[in-house]
Design a protein that fits this description.
The complex is a heterodimer of chains A (599) and B (380). With 599 residues, chain A is of the alpha+beta class. Chain A is built from 13 helices and 33 strands. In chain A, helix 3 packs parallel to helix 4 and helix 11 runs antiparallel to helix 13. Chain B folds into two domains: 246 residues, Alpha-Beta Barrel (TIM Barrel), CATH 3.20.20; 54 residues, no CATH class. The chains are: A alpha+beta (599), B alpha/beta (380).
């Protein structure tokens, strides 16, 4: 039986502030998905952090009914995609559920690197890419130039791109019209055995695991007995339906449709993202291709400031892990910081978000050690090991080759900032592979050590280009490099949590800078604090934080102790952000100082 | 359990103008100071407090501010008379008045002495016009000098001079000069304290450039040895006195004694034996003078100090004393067994911050008193 020809499954590819969320909101409004009152600004970013930072982290979907000009009502399934470079892997998942994508480009700023990469992914997956120029009403808008750039950089025809302004509601209907005309309906047979792709799964306190699925073929109904292909586990479907964007139970999902499934699955590993779902009676149906497993790129130790919080911390990580399959963690113990977890993240933003969520949603005070990438070590005995923690670096005697991860970075930047971007890449030990001049921007291609990229390249790029440069990168290989571990000693004790792996040529000067930086960050205490930097056991720099001479409030107004208590409480609050290593109080900033000195 | 000695604090909230470093409850004085109305309000306030201190007598009265010397001798007479009619004052009662060294206050000194004030605390702050201006004081160095001399000529024996150090741009030598000048008069009590920037002050918003931490520590060491060589004992962090001249009112605070607080924004602390349960209550009055004067009930808040907070409150006061206090005083003043602080006490002693035989900071602990006090902060 043929599939419903009025279905359109699509994503929006857009840079963070090119107006994707606003565009999505306009669609919802146009199709009457929510009443005016329910239309809280930017409906789809549902986490507080997403809304505050104006970013999308998790894929979500919404089903809308669009009454088109041809008199027919189309079912539009919009699958949201994250826009930040850290979350690129989520994008390919979302695209897998679609037949087309809208490429939303800021008509004043032009194409951006991450969107280019996402467009290539979409084209590879045979999606129809429909370009849209947004923010057309800005005085700086240059629609013709930007159209030309889309054609040059991405290689798709942009001559018919709709000129729109999501903010002011211009051209919204035209975009929807193009969408239903250009994006093909899904194909697939409703009568064939069920194949449903799990696009995303998340944990809901009341329902257990909720999975977002795309039905490739067949029909899924409430109470059906289903089976997860990779695990062979069987479940009964308790509920299924669509997001409109409110969750709406509809009892049946047919081939070509996108919706949610609740089947009494207790944890995320029961419904792995990218897996195939089918009926128990058709257990032999082929599994769908699925997704590349995503690997963390940045590792850092997270430690509770108060060691009593360790159990709570472990529980909190387990809960976050339920919703974030990309979060990796394993127990770590540090001489200096006690028990904590070594966590792997997709990038620095991912790390910040996880730390923020742990602190905010689980009320933990955490200390993060300097993030690091993973290194490949070839040992004298022929084995290969991977090190994600500087303090675990084996002694150099047993290492024959040490390799660092290299990425290929694609940067798009307006011409006037090319010089800045190139000096930045040189500073970051990059080697240029290609450079091409496009209509409004320059495409620069570099190979860079991943350690230099993940830590702060994104922020640095933004700051040297007034926010215009965009970045997209992929790991390509491990490459031999002369690397050393830089240790920091506090009062002659090596602090494992302060160790960093870095390029040999930079180590001595960074050691000296780091000592000075530490001196500024470690508050004066009741005794002198000696800070030393060492490479391979050899001290290369030292400095001292002189003891505080006194710490006593001069005048105490005898009658009113409340002020004094407030002062002491503040002092205590400050200490909360510090970790005692030996007798020395070290603030959180000091653990991250190693990242900060090239600003 | 016997109740602690009782003092009385009276707050007189007006000043000619607010000093940029002051975070006390002070307000710019209106053209016609409502003396009578305010004194009536104070006595009404005291009346309301009396049931809580039945049968107890007052060992010291402190008239603080603001600038209490803005009040006329007549108003002060009415106030002191009103107080003594309501509550028993001990025969040796110490009655201190805070006064500014301005011209018209000096004319009143004799009158204040006559109506019962027997101790003066003069807000000298510095003997150098440059720093007085920097501090926003309205008096001059000469007026400071004259005020002391006139009090001495009137035969007043108990005088305290408030002197500050660490003033904007001050050198070590200049701070010593202020102390040397103070010592020339033969007064027996000096409150010598560091200028600090407190929240909700002009200086906090627009901080002046102050001497750095090391200079301040040097100033302090130098000043301490100067005062010691002049036979002054630093009996409390900021208070120096010759033998027998200690401020009894302040000593009562530092021994965690009781005090009634009357006046706008005044704080009081009163202990009770409540059905055999020892309790400490903190009482705060309405802050705004206008509201305070018309209020039927001047009380703004009355809170019983929790058992978790009592040790910290006790030590905030007791550890400021050079000799500290006897261990028994802890139980007498808080109603808690000494075992209740065994753990923090042991930790503080191990860290070398407290003496082993009494509740007293070591020399090290006294220098880092704010760090020492954190040992007694309740967890949470």
């Amino acid at each position: 039986m043929a599939i419903n020809p009025l279905i359109r499954n699509f994503s929006i590819i857009a840079h963070i502030d090119h107006g994707k969320s606003t565009m999505a909101d306009r669609f919802i409004q146009w199709c009457g998905g929510l009443s005016e009152r329910e239309m809280e600004h930017q409906v789809l970013d549902s986490m507080d952090i997403e809304r505050e930072r104006g970013i999308t982290i998790k894929a979500q979907s919404v089903t809308l009914n669009y009454p088109a000009r041809d008199g027919r009502v189309y079912q539009l399934n919009f699958i949201d995609t994250p826009g930040h470079v850290d979350f690129a892997y989520e994008v390919s998942r979302s695209l897998e559920a679609c037949e087309g994508a809208l490429l939303v480009v800021d008509a004043a700023q032009g194409v951006e690197a991450q969107s280019v990469a996402n467009c290539y992914t979409a084209i590879e997956q045979s999606l129809e890419v429909v370009p849209v120029l947004n923010k057309i009403d800005l005085p700086q808008a240059e629609p013709d130039k930007v159209k030309r750039e889309i054609e040059e950089v991405i290689g798709i025809d942009a001559s018919d791109a709709v000129a729109a302004s999501a903010k002011n509601g211009i051209g919204i209907e035209d975009v929807l019209e193009q969408l239903v005309q250009l994006i093909p309906p899904p194909s697939g047979d409703e009568l064939a055995p069920l194949q449903a792709l799990i696009i995303d799964s998340w944990f809901d306190n009341y329902l257990g695991i909720v999975s977002l699925v795309r039905i490739k073929q067949g029909i899924l109904k409430q109470k059906d007995k289903i089976l997860i292909k990779s695990t062979g586990q069987q479940y009964g479907v308790d509920d299924l339906g669509i997001f409109s964007p409110k969750r709406e139970s509809i009892g049946v999902l047919k081939a070509g449709e996108v919706g949610y499934v609740v089947a009494g699955i207790k944890d995320i590993h029961g419904a792995p993202v990218g897996d195939t779902l089918t009926h128990v009676k058709t257990a032999n149906v082929a599994a769908l291709p699925g997704f590349k497993k995503v690997k963390p790129q940045v590792y850092a130790g997270l430690f509770p400031i108060n060691s009593d919080d360790y159990e709570d911390f472990r529980d909190a990580l387990a809960k976050l892990g339920l919703n974030d399959a990309s979060l990796f963690y394993e127990p770590e113990s540090s001489d200096a910081l006690g028990f904590g977890f070594r966590c792997g993240f997709l990038g620095m933003l991912h790390m910040e978000i996880i730390q923020e969520r742990l602190e905010r949603e689980y009320n933990l005070d955490l200390l993060t050690t300097a993030p690091t990438v993973i290194y490949e070590l070839e040992m004298s005995n022929g084995s290969t090991i991977y090190v994600d923690n500087p303090s675990k670096l084996p002694s150099m005697g047993g290492v024959s080759v040490m390799r660092e991860p290299i990425v290929e970075a694609n940067i798009l930047v307006p011409q006037e900032y090319v010089g800045n971007v190139i000096s930045l890449c040189v500073e970051k030990r990059g080697s240029q592979k290609d450079m091409q001049f496009m209509a409004t921007q320059v495409a620069i291609n570099y190979e860079l050590p991943m350690s230099e990229v993940v830590l702060n390249l994104f922020d640095r790029l933004k700051s040297v280009s007034r926010g215009y440069a965009s970045l997209e990168y992929n790991f390509i290989r491990f490459q031999p490099a002369s690397l050393v571990r830089l240790d920091i000693l506090i009062n002659s004790e090596r602090v494992d949590a302060l160790a960093v792996i870095m390029h040999k040529d930079n180590a001595a000067s960074r050691g000296r800078l780091l000592c000075e930086k530490m001196k500024q960050l470690i508050p004066r205490q009741m005794f002198d604090v000696a800070i030393q930097a060492a490479i391979g056991g050899q001290i290369i720099a030292r400095t001292t934080v002189k003891a505080l001479r006194k710490n006593v409030t001069a005048k105490c107004y005898g009658g009113d102790v409340s002020r004094k208590k407030k002062l002491l409480a503040k002092q205590k609050e400050g200490k909360k952000r510090m970790k005692q290593v030996g007798r020395v109080d070290i603030p959180q900033d000091a653990f991250l100082a190693v990242l900060k000195f090239d600003h | 359990m016997p109740l602690p000695p009782l003092s009385l604090y009276v707050h007189l909230p007006w000043c000619v103008q607010k000093c940029p470093y002051c975070d006390f409850n002070s307000h710019t004085a209106p053209a016609n100071l409502p003396e009578q109305q305010y004194v009536a309000a104070l006595l009404r306030d005291l009346d309301a407090e009396l049931p809580m201190v039945q049968g107890r007598s007052v060992g010291s009265v402190f008239l603080g501010g603001g600038t209490p010397s803005l009040f006329s001798v007549t108003a002060m007479a009415n106030l002191l008379q009103g107080i003594s009619r309501r509550i028993q004052l001990t025969t040796t009662v110490e009655i201190t008045l805070e006064a500014n060294p301005g011209a018209f206050e000096q004319a009143r000194f004799a009158g204040y002495l006559e109506v019962g004030v027997n101790r003066f605390s003069l807000g000298i702050q510095s003997f150098q016009d440059k720093y007085l201006q920097a501090l926003g004081r309205i008096h001059t160095a000469k007026q400071g000098h004259d005020a002391i001399v006139s009090l001495l000529q009137l035969g007043c024996e108990r005088i305290n001079l408030d002197i500050m150090y660490g003033l904007p741009g001050q050198t070590q030598q200049q701070s010593q000069e202020d102390l040397l000048q103070a010592l020339t008069y033969g007064v027996q009590h000096i409150s010598w304290y560091q200028l600090t920037l407190e929240p909700n002050t002009e200086f906090y918003l627009r901080p002046p450039s102050l001497p750095n931490e090391d200079m301040l520590a040097d100033m302090q060491l130098e000043g301490q040895s100067l005062l010691t060589s002049a036979n002054f004992q630093q009996y409390e962090v900021s208070a120096f006195a010759q033998t027998g001249a200690e401020a009894r009112h302040n000593l009562n605070y530092w021994h965690f004694g009781d005090y009634l607080g009357i006046g706008a924004g005044a704080h009081g602390k009163i202990s009770h034996n409540y059905y055999g349960q020892f309790q400490v209550q903190r009482r705060v009055k309405l802050r705004q003078p206008k509201a305070y004067m018309v209020a039927i009930d001047a009380l703004s808040s009355a809170v019983t100090v929790t058992q978790e907070d009592l040790p910290l409150e006790f030590f905030i006061n007791a550890l400021r004393l050079y000799y500290g206090v006897d261990s028994q005083l802890f139980t007498q003043r808080t109603g808690l067994p000494i075992q209740s602080i065994a753990t923090p006490l042991q930790k503080a002693r191990q860290a070398g911050l407290m003496e082993s035989n009494r509740l007293r900071a070591t020399a090290l602990g006294w220098r880092y008193l704010d760090d020492l006090l954190t040992y007694f902060q309740s967890t949470g």
